[in-house]
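seq as requested:
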Amino acid sequence: MSDSEDVLATAASWRAAGETVALATVVETWGSSPRPAGSRLAVTASGRMAGSVSGGCIEGAVADAAKQTMASGTPQLLDFGISDERAWEVGLACGGKLKVFVEALS
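struct tokens:
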């Protein structure tokens, strides 16, 4: 089973147990990105997480957006980009950009 399948299986088991779950997926990257397109992060309303879409403060921002998406039911497309000067500070070691799609699972 791949990492992506593990995240999906974990999200499915959380949903089956009655948890509210959102799934974040890296849909595009440019330049350097810690995780490739297709990487996933599952987040529950209670704060459980499985997988990874980036690391650093981007991961926290995606988790916050996932909680908003669970509350509203409205999917989001998040766009992160950073200059080389601030790259380490936010978790994009060599600069770069990424887009993450966040959706609530039902």
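The chain has one domain: 3-104.
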